[in-house]
């Protein structure tokens, strides 16, 4: 054995040992040395001198590229890992381990079509004969994720019915009929490109980075949040350092300044099929800009427009989801979000028309105008949505202010609701205007409808709960507090019509990813002798 062959053998043995011990960085370094040595030996070996020796060198080089790709993928250096896979496959086009490695990387990058091709090709490698179950498992996974990504057809029902137990759900990235455009609300926004029914998915996307923790009392909670924020920033920094595309996506987000001058991105940039553009490990990061972007665009999981499903509901979480960051606030929102693992599922909470902007409520919009103004200012903006403009005209009425003050002082809520309903008749408030004002005073309505005593006194003098709920849902979309009142009413005296109303509201709140039986479970609606 020559000195070079002996050196190669030692490098190969040591690198493999490090790989098995999951010491990824050290194994990458040794595999890089082995690759350099193999390439040097190949270039110095005459093609006709010893075909067997040359073939052996090429095989060693293929395995070295494949193993380095695996180590790099474990560090989530996916672009470099893919390059290594391609180098290995140039040497041996059906190399089983490389095809599996490349397929898994492409799955992580949500490039399902390309991953599917890799796993199909792996079936033709003789090495795969003993691993057909593994390959077929990946093929089925690819087909499922590709179908989800193409159709937006997701079903979390089994997971819900199983009490959120089992393996974490793997969801595809999905972008529905939406695009980014200039917004009259603020800067840029996300807009529907066609009509979207309540409960229908708008998008499903995984966090760039997320940090979770448990908050204690007030003082410890503040310290915990600061600690989590620091960890979150570090995770974002690591994600940006690893991949240039991630950095480009984050760079296009708002820092809160010069909103009008920001470019409107084409939707193709957000689709997972786009090729990776290489890593930017050597590029200097503008951390001041990144911190400003995170301050404006990061989301907490437990928010008024969100619902956390599964074990993460026990934690406080903060994360960054790129496309979700384009969704502006409105006091008459039309969308909500579910948090499932590291994914966000955004869906329409009421019917949305083509061209309409997709909006969340950043704060509790089931509140009177004055409180909403205070909350919007605390968020750093002054809300000028259609609801706020309409209510400004009505709220100048002295009687409306008296109703609000009376409720703060603890007057009979039934009387306050009756007075508001009579006032709307005199002020000629109709259509959506009624829904807006009822939403502003929803807490009072909910208290009346939830009290047998209040309903006995006021029930015949105020609109039925169903009419009020329908008018609020029309302008606000589904909300957990509306849903609670409807479900409680159903449990007391409901029938088929009331059941269908509850289920419709439930779909607007939880989306269509949760089917009928699972939705019943979440709403705690049992099966009665009427069959609903």
TrEMBL record:
PROSITE patterns assigned to the protein according to its UniProt record, in alphabetical order: SET
Pfam families in the cross-refs: SET
Coiled-coil region list: none
Domain (SET) ranges: 176-363
Protein's recorded name: SET domain-containing protein
